[in-house]
């Protein structure tokens, strides 16, 4: 039971982290992603990938959405996998992720220089789904390895 409480706490903290990022005004959020762009863009150019800096910045921002929700999908899957039947696990995790993403984008509607976008909700949900799929595959592999 202690493990379950730890998982719940981590999941709540991660969700709060996501919401906190959405409360950052647009200029601060842009500075954060701009830092990542400044570090990675020269590497991308050295690799010979021809991409405009604005397009690369857009990609980094969307990957941030995906990554936040990939981790949420992983946490939700681990949290629910022991207590929810497999055929309902997908539904519960996706609904939980979709509600979180919708709240997240709604928060951004009220944050200076930010916008809430349906496209971002879809990116977020795709992160949850991929996180859930990979977590299930990882758990299945561990269980198969232990049974040998």
TrEMBL record:
Transmembrane helix among keywords: yes
Parts of the chain that traverse the membrane: 63-82, 89-109, 121-139
Keywords per UniProt: Membrane, Transmembrane, Transmembrane helix
Domain VanZ-like positions: 8-137
InterPro entries found in the cross-reference section: VanZ-like
Domain of life: Bacteria
Record flagged with keyword Amino-acid biosynthesis: no
Pfam family, one: VanZ
NCBIfam families for this protein: vanZ_1
Protein name in UniProt: VanZ family protein
Taxonomic source organism: Paracholeplasma manati
């Amino acid at each position: 039971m202690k493990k379950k409480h730890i998982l719940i706490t981590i999941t709540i903290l991660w969700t709060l982290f996501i919401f906190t990022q959405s409360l950052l005004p647009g200029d601060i959020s842009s500075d954060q992603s701009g830092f990542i762009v400044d570090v990675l863009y020269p590497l991308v150019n050295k690799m010979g990938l021809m991409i405009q800096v604005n397009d690369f910045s857009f990609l980094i921002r969307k990957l941030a959405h995906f990554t936040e929700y990939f981790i949420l999908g992983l946490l939700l899957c681990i949290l629910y996998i022991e207590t929810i039947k497999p055929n309902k696990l997908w539904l519960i995790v996706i609904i939980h992720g979709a509600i979180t993403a919708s709240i997240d984008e709604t928060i951004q509607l009220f944050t200076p220089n930010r916008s809430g976008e349906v496209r971002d909700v879809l990116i977020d949900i795709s992160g949850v789904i991929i996180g859930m799929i990979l977590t299930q595959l990882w758990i299945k592999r561990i269980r198969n390895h232990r049974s040998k």
